[in-house]
Automatic annotation (TrEMBL):
<dbReference type="Pfam" id="PF09341">
    <property type="entry name" value="Pcc1"/>
</dbReference>
<keyword id="KW-0539">Nucleus</keyword>
<protein>
    <submittedName>
        <fullName>Putative CTAG/Pcc1 family</fullName>
    </submittedName>
</protein>
<dbReference type="GO" id="GO:0005634">
    <property type="term" value="C:nucleus"/>
</dbReference>
<keyword id="KW-0963">Cytoplasm</keyword>
<dbReference type="GO" id="GO:0008033">
    <property type="term" value="P:tRNA processing"/>
</dbReference>
<dbReference type="InterPro" id="IPR015419">
    <property type="entry name" value="CTAG/Pcc1"/>
</dbReference>
<comment type="similarity">
    <text>Belongs to the CTAG/PCC1 family.</text>
</comment>
<keyword id="KW-0819">tRNA processing</keyword>
<dbReference type="GO" id="GO:0005737">
    <property type="term" value="C:cytoplasm"/>
</dbReference>
Length: 95
């Protein structure tokens, strides 16, 4: 189950997401697939991603909660598709 945490920091909204793929290779593949999609409104939403110990960590920082929600929702759709692709065609991965 992904680790999720949201909080308000001053005038911005922040959301942290961590998904354990239990494999550095699979986490890196997912990272590479998602990193090419840049935020549509970089002045309003910033997304920071990293991979460590088989886990994909993502931090969203937005000027308003509504921008955070829209960005997170679109990202999770892409994340779900990438994860299902790895599960279907990857080397024995189960998340």
């Amino acid at each position: 189950m992904p680790l999720k945490r949201m909080y308000l920091s001053g005038s911005s909204a922040v959301f942290d997401l961590e998904v354990d793929y239990k494999s550095e290779e699979n986490a890196s593949i997912i990272y590479s697939a998602l990193a090419i999609d840049k935020e549509l409104q970089p002045d309003k939403v910033r997304r920071l991603m990293s991979v460590s110990n088989g886990k994909l960590s993502v931090r969203f920082e937005a000027t308003e909660a509504r921008f955070l929600r829209a960005s997170y929702s679109a990202f999770v759709d892409a994340l779900t598709l990438a994860t299902k692709t790895i599960e279907q065609f990857g080397k024995g991965m189960e998340v």
